[in-house]
Design a protein that fits this description.
single chain; alpha/beta; Rossmann fold; 12 helices; 7 strands; 13% strand; globular; binds adenosine-5'-triphosphate; binds magnesium ion
């Protein structure tokens, strides 16, 4: 503690944002074994601002967003805001990040801007930060991977997805060699359809190749997860007893148990 997580994959639509929000909400929630929940900060690093919108915040109306912190014009705390969920704060994004991704490149120490913000004393009030990355490997993703202790890579069990995982691992190794040698990674299977034969074959392949880095918890396809962003609520609030809410709770438990063994 504190734990810094990046959720990233260069592949689009693999549930990065859904996982950031659902896992964050599960970690923030009180449970029998953890009566107060963790203090969680979610950071939207994607110009699409899907995480921001999924928490009911309009990215068009922001006075400040993550870009201001990356340009060192604001502190991370000054750009963060409380969400409607207890213990869950958000640093929002807007479309302006699209330009910032390019503007930041080449500035001195540009890869370390987010890391600096997250290691400031003010940020230590958060037990866990989770960064939602865009589906591309630019300066924003590089900042998230440089700042993170742990990278979670969501993977769907389709042929192209498994292939792009291989390519993404090369980028992860590049980050490990250059800006973050202690970065660890875990793979999360998402949007899983257990009735599909190919999905099961690819699941076996991913598990045999990546071993214990693959979370035992699998996130299945569940239409409730498609509905919850529309009403601006995490699945834990929108459908707390749904299968996907239970799966994300199981993921939170597995993650924190493994992290405690690790430290
Ligand atoms: N387990 C699931 N079951 C059903 N739908 C899901 C599930 N997980 C995510 N989705 C839906 O799949 C779509 C893509 O999910 P999401 O936006 O989280 O992916 P992403 O990786 O963040 O996408 P992008 O690369 O565009 O940022 C969304 O419509 C989301 O609601
Ligand atoms: Mg997303």
């Amino acid at each position: 503690m504190p734990l810094k997580i990046a959720i990233s994959s260069q592949k689009g639509g693999v549930a990065k944002t859904t996982t950031t929000l659902s896992l964050g909400a599960c970690l923030a929630a009180a449970t029998d074994s953890r009566p107060y929940g963790y203090n969680v900060l979610l950071i939207d690093l994607d110009p699409q601002a899907n995480l921001t919108m999924a928490l009911g915040v309009n990215p068009g109306n922001l006075r400040r967003m993550i870009g201001d912190a990356l340009l060192e014009q604001s502190s991370l705390l000054a750009v963060s805001r409380e969400s409607a969920i207890a213990n869950l704060d958000l640093v929002p994004a807007s479309q302006g990040l699209l330009v910032l991704d390019k503007v930041l490149f080449g500035r001195p120490g540009f890869e370390y801007r987010l890391k600096q913000q997250l290691t400031s004393p003010a940020a230590s009030q958060f037990d866990i930060t989770i960064c939602d990355c865009p589906p591309a490997f630019g300066t924003l993703t590089l900042n998230a991977l440089t700042a993170a202790d742990l990278l979670i890579i969501p993977v769907t069990c389709e042929y192209f997805s498994a292939r792009s995982l291989q390519q993404f691992m090369e980028l992860v190794n590049l980050v490990k060699r250059n800006t973050n040698p202690t970065l660890r990674y875990r793979i999360l299977i998402t949007l899983f359809d257990k009735r599909n034969r190919i999905s099961n074959i690819i699941l076996d392949q991913v598990r045999s190749k990546y071993g214990s880095t693959v979370f035992r918890t699998i996130i299945s396809i569940d239409t409730r997860l498609r509905e919850s962003p529309v009403v601006g609520q995490p699945i834990t609030v929108y459908a707390p007893h749904s299968r996907s809410a239970e799966e994300y709770h199981a993921l939170a438990v597995e993650l924190m148990n493994d992290e405690q063994t690790q430290s």
